[in-house]
Amino acid sequence: MANYRCPCCRKISSDPHDLARHFLGQTDSKHKDWLKTKGLSYAQLITSQAEFGNKGYDTLAEVLKKEAPKVE
Amino acid sequence: MNEYSIIGKPTTNVDGVAKVTGEAVYTFDMTLPNMLYGKLLRSPHPHARIVSIDTSEAEKLPGVKAVITGKDTPGGKYGLWRRFRELADQEILATTKVRFIGDPVAAVAATSEDIAEKALDLINVEYEPLPAVFEPLEAIKDDAPLVHDDFENNINATRHIEWGNVDKAFKNADYVREDRFNLLSQHPAPMEVHSSIASYEKGSGRLTVWSSTQSPYFLQLGLADALKMREGNIRVIKPHVGGAFGGKNSTMPDSVNAAILSMKTGRPVKIVFNREEEFTATEKRTAMHLAIKIGLKKDGTLLAKEVKIITDGGAYTGLGATTLYLAGTWITFPYKTPNYRYDGFRTYTNKMWSSSVRGFGAVSAVYAAETQIDRAARDLGIDPIEIRRRNAMTTGYEAPGQYKVESCGILPCIDKMEQRVKEKWANLDKDEGIGFAAFAYMSGGIFNWIDTPYAFSGAMVKVNIDGTVDLFTQASDIGQGHNTVSVMICAEELGIGIEDIRLHPADTATTLTDLGAWGSRETLMNGNAVKAAAAEVKKKLIEVARMKLGENIVYDLDAKDKRIYIALRPERGFSYYDIVKDAIKGNDGEPLIGIGHYTPHRKGMVSPAYAMGIMGVRAKVDRETGQVEVKEVIVVHDCGQTINPLGARGQVEGSIQMGLGFGLCEDLPTENGLILNPSFVDYKLIRIREMPQIELFDVPTYDPEGPYGAKESAEATTAPTAPALANAIYNAVGVEFDSNVLRLEKVLKALKEKEAKEKGKGRR
Amino acid sequence: MKKELKFVVNGESYDLWVEPNTLLVQVLRDELGLKGTKWSCDSGSCCACAVILDGRVVKSCSIFALQANGKEVLTIEGLANGPELHPIQQAFIDNWAFQCGFCTSGQIMAAKALLDENPKPTREEIQLAMDGHLCRCTGYNMISEAIQDAAKRLQA
Question: Which of B246, B333, B607, B762 could crosslink B440 through cysteines, CB 3.0-4.6 Å?
């Protein structure tokens, strides 16, 4: 099973959704700016997560699955 | 059942004589020699850039001793969420822009309040009004004006809580429903307005502040951060407080501006808000949009719950970020929720900020959850008591990664309610209904966003040669009766009388840190510290008594009724007073003291213990006017072990008054950021003739974490009042609401709409 | 321009000079140092400032000090008999009829005025007499019980 490292800090998780939840919990500019480089908006992810369902994390998890460095 | 001498027995207030004779001194009453009076100049705009401030005319007014603006302060920002520095967003006085109507921009100290007020009129501020935003759903839009530049889309704080798999569970549910609510704000409205006196000592550079505060420690930290001083050079003393209810946790402009003015003038400065300032510029309950979805089996068993909350934060953070977290937590209590997801975010808006108010998120959240569960019960044909019973938590229930419930009396509470309702409310009049709401609440919080390195509560007991005791605790009695509880616990532990103990409360210089009176923490957390401190002394006394008795080490000794004796042979023992003398004289005169402290450990993320119970409300609706009359209330609660039944009853009844206000009449209509009713004439509180008769039943469990098994009491009961009432209204006349403050116009409108709908159906 | 105010407060005579717009509550608290009477609402709508003026309960925030000229005022400080509490005060203590205590002086003075006029009030009469008093802490029922208890003690 692959482990993903957060592109902006040392957090590691085997679950992209878990990593997405970590990511959106960070409020520093490093994390927020990274989203912009991937065409995502922090505000949009948060506000869509405030609708029933898991849209914000689902979207970010998909992106992290592709973009986050994989580690052993 | 434990046989206590003092715990559990009705005990009158240790501050009673002071309070009924007018001798109790509040910050509001205090004067100091050479004291000046301060006033704040506040922004008339909800959002504006400060172009210039000219204080020269004000400075010339005879009697004015100092005028300050942002440039006279150390600069920088402060706030209670110290662990997340970006959320410490308050300034002493606005420097570049103002963010709500009432945001202070200048302060004056003068020889009288009148002169200080006149001076305010002479300060010339040039503003450049900026577009403002007042509604969270508008504030998050991309083109909305930013209240704070660093916060994209005005998102101040977010919170996510999750366990299990809600999406899968919803798919398997027999019944799924979604409901949306709009929960309104409420003002704590304490009888004593915010008041502070600051006195700066020129020689030592030390500051002393007396303030009407819930937490001398929080105020000490806030002042240290704001003034860029060492904490230890700031002494905060809390005199008697005329109520707080959550609105006096933060470091507010009265204390910090009084401090700066005192530094500047070299004299003590007192700042007291007027009632309009109290309503418009002090912290209030967090309003929120709340969406809640539940999935049940057809027998009513809860499978999944999903909650989404957007809170209206106002212009600064205060404790609003904690409310965001707690609302998403209380909404799961007191039911077993196998699958849960919560997402919430707090928005900045250009209004006075919302923070913690009695209930701390529970009042708004539980209104939604407890009206919804009744709706579900109706659809499924299940009795409202039964559906709650079916889902009730049990001892040892754990919400994965979040909290664990040790003592848990919700089921016996429900049983008792069912029985009492059958006895008391068997016959209802026309247009009368009964409604229920279950509740649970924390006994203090485990979170440490304040970033203290200290134990959450400490206490010291000093025993004098004559057996009198000086008890030092920083805990805050803000009316809830904690001073009495502290003394009761100390007396019980030492086996002496209330009259033997003198309490020295709430002074940061002479007492050990306590985090203050919020989240219902004092009885459990400070109670444990007091008990531990007294126990340390008791141990010393027992050692002395044991030596004198010369008995086998297996014999236990007790301290009770002012004696220290062998538990199995009570006639063999000594007077407490004699042992105290021996303990001091026989030990080289070493001071006889005990120190205790408490911090919760291994108790999850939320609280060390939870009180819970169920409330029933009987109400009658007048179909002609929409007026709702609350006739009677029954409360059955588990608070572990009631320490003082008089105090507990008083608190429960007071919490119901506030809960009814939330349900019926207290709101803050606001237009373009201006609160329209900042006085008791137009802000309606429940008064004596509107209060129902209340019956309170105690279902004692025993929580091992609490002193003598005690948990919190009566912040919990603020939350179920309004939803139980809303449910009663439905059962009386068949109308539902998606908001609180059920004024007669609202009820009448709902009745008329229902009537029209039914007529419409009839015609087809 | 200041005017002369000669009145009796808690049995003691005072001769002061006050501005015409000075409120009675201000003279009591700031001139005479009787801080037991509070004020809270700035709008005459809470009765925390209630005192007894010539036998009638009044809101001292809504009366000019000069209106008390030649009259007798009783405040909370004047109720106890030295160290001995008045039965109403004792009843408030025994019935836990206060919590923060800020509205308590006004409540007790109004209770005294009520019981002086009506020694055996019904619960409804108590509620009617006390309706103007705001209390944020108690929920009022324990206050009514204290007043009923006080009535019994005064009869005894």
Answer: B333
Beta bridge partners of B596: B459
Contacts of C110 (CB under 8 A, 6+ apart): C47, C50, C57, C129, C130, C132, C133
Determine the distance from the C-alpha atom of residue B339 to the mean position of all C-alpha atoms in its chain, rounded to a whole number.
Answer: 29
Q: Rounded to whole angstroms, what are the CA distances from B5 to B10, B490, B495, B539, C46?
A: 11, 12, 8, 19, 40
Using an 8 Å CB-CB cutoff, list residues of chain A that contact chain B: 21, 24-25, 27, 32, 41-43, 46-47, 49-54, 56
Sign of the CA dihedral with B343 first, then B349, B355, and B358 last: negative
Please name the residue of chain A whose CA is at the shortest distance from the CA of residue B310.
Answer: A50
CA C131, CA B202: separation in Å to the nearest integer?
49
When CB atoms are compared, the residue of A32, A46, A54 closest to B345 is A46
Instruction: Write out the two tokens for C152.
Output: 């019994």
What DSSP state is assigned to residue C79? T
Domain ranges of chain C: 3-78, 87-155
Q: What is the pLDDT of residues B334-368, one digit of tens each?
A: 999 999 999 999 999 999 999 999 999 999 999 99
End-to-end CA distance of chain A: 9
What pLDDT is stored for residue B90 in this prediction? 96
Residue B86 confidence (pLDDT): 85
**What's the rounded Cα separation, in Å, for the pair B45 and B155?**
22
For domain C87-155, the CATH architecture is Orthogonal Bundle (1.10)
Quick one: closest CA in B to C78, which residue? B21
* Mean pLDDT, range A52-70, rounded to an integer: 94
Contact predicate B4/B708, CB 8 Å: yes
What is the H or E stretch that residue B348 is in? strand B339-348
Nearest to B12 among C40, C75, C94 (CB): C94
Q: Are B221 and B482 in contact (CB under 8 A)?
A: no
Closest CA to C76 of C53, C33, C106: C106
What pLDDT shows up at residue B51?
A: 98
ipTM: 0.98
Question: Which of C34, C102, C128 lies at the smallest CB-CB distance from B26?
Answer: C102
Topology of domain C3-78 in CATH is Ubiquitin-like (UB roll) (3.10.20)
**Where are the extended beta strands (E) located within B315-373?**
339-348, 354-355
Give the Cα separation of B594 and B588 in Å (integer): 17
pLDDT digits (tens, 9 = 90+) for B413-470: 999 999 999 999 999 999 999 999 999 999 999 989 899 999 999 999 999 999 999 9
Which residue ranges in chain C fall short of pLDDT 70? Answer: none
Taking only the tens place, the pLDDT of each residue in B552-583 is 888 899 999 999 999 999 999 999 999 999 99
Exposure on the CB side of residue B571, measured as CA atoms within 13 A: 0
Assess contact for B335 and B392: CB atoms under 8 A.
yes
Tens-place pLDDT, residues B97-125: 999 999 999 999 999 999 999 999 999 99
State pTM to two decimals: 0.97
**pLDDT in the model for residue B1:** 46
Chain B interface residues (partner A, CB cutoff 8 A): 84, 86, 140, 142, 152-153, 155, 158, 160, 162, 167, 178, 291, 293, 306, 308-310, 341, 343-345
The verdict on B245 touching C (C-beta cutoff 8 Å) is yes
**Matching CATH topology for C3-78 and C87-155?**
no
CA distance B607 to B733: 39
Residue with the two structure tokens 């008990």: B531
Instruction: Give residue B451's Cα distance to chain centre.
Output: 19
Q: What's the pLDDT score for residue B760?
A: 87
**Tokens at B646, concatenated:** 């008089």
The mean pLDDT value for B299-310 works out to 98
Nearest by CB: B158 against A24, A53, A54: A24
Q: What is the distance in angstroms between the CA of the first residue and the CA of the last residue of chain C?
A: 50
With a cut of 50, say whether residue B153 has pLDDT above it.
yes
